Amino acid sequence: MNIKEEFKEIVEEIRENEKEFNFTPREIIAFFNCIKRTKGNSARIDDYLDAQNLVTIPDYKNHYIDGEIKLKHKEKAKSRSKTDPIQRISLLPSANKAPITVPRDAKLNEAQTLMMINGYSQLPVMSNPRTVAGFVTWETIGMSLTNGISSVDVKDFLTTDFTILEYNTPLLEAIKTVLEKEYVLVRKKDKTISGIVTLADISHQFMTSTEPFLLLEQIENLIRRVLDKKFLVEELNQLCESEGSDNHKVSYIDDLTFGQYIRLIEKSENWEKLDLSIDRSNFIKKLDEVREIRNDVMHFDPEGITNQQKDTLINVANFLTRLVVIKNL
User: 63 and 45, same structural domain?
Assistant: First the structure.
């Protein structure tokens, strides 16, 4: 089909920059060197628009020939999440808590007292929110005293061997640095120090991120123990087929999804096979809560799960553990 170069440039603009253009149906077909919307012309124009993933709203074929229509790219599937795909050091609470500091002319006993009261191993020595003179640490104090320094001033116990990371530093990169240096300062765009991140903070974040996965794995393993050898493989495949999963053949309990565990035992006849002396409705309700939490966890929310959700996972894991022990499963 003979297409005007002007239209090809418009199509490129739409594809690359997601722009929209207003035309009339007459102008659209003119781009294809057509005068009328015959079946043949329309078919060729439609084929081209489809190949370029373009659409007219309303349809150019049915709209008044000199009425305005919009030419645009077909709607693209977008992610609901607009969050930064990379976890950064800025998500840590300690990176957003202005550190306790002492000025360079402070006395050593002031620094020591602050470190002991707050349980710190180090303290930044700063004259203002943007300027770091160094750090005073239990190590620098010990080394200095061992080498005969008897000063009472903080400035004589400083180390200038410290690291500052930018606020948007990727968390994985930051973790490597903290593991090497033991602590780092975090700096915002305006050059102010926003916080200090230590090994303890990294350990806490690791626990926050991994604990839900470990609890969910424990829960799923325990559910499999409860379901083990209670059903025929044929029954499991019937469940999958009833849900439209004909091409997914099941050979083991492990092949089922968490949701399928729930749907399997929702049926009263299947519940009886488990021979459990507990209330079915409340048990299933709690498992469904776990399923919803599991969906949240698998979306890798950097803020983790709520305390209530964590308590739910812990309680269910503990309950299933006791159940497996009592039933000798």
Answer: yes
Interatomic CA distance for residues 181 and 161, integer angstroms: 9
Quick check: 42 pLDDT over 90? yes
Which domain range does residue 21 map to?
5-73
pLDDT (tens digit per residue) in 61-81: 999 999 999 999 998 876 665
**Omega of the bond leading into 58 within 30 degrees of 0 (cis):** yes
For residues 180 and 278, membership in a common domain is answered with no
User: In this predicted structure, what is the pLDDT of residue 250?
Assistant: 83
| CATH classification at residue 138 | 3.10.580.10
Which letter, b or e, does each residue of 165-204 get, where b requires 16 or more Cβ atoms within 10 Å of its Cβ?
bebebebeebbebbeeebbbbbbbeeeebbbbbbeebbee
- Please give the pLDDT value at position 247: 62
> Which regions of the chain does DSSP assign to beta strands (E)?
21-23, 54-57, 69-73, 122-128, 131-137, 158-159, 164-166, 183-187, 193-198
Q: Within this chain, do residues 231 and 294 fall inside the same structural domain, yes or no?
A: yes
Asked, for residue 294, whether it belongs to a domain, the answer is yes
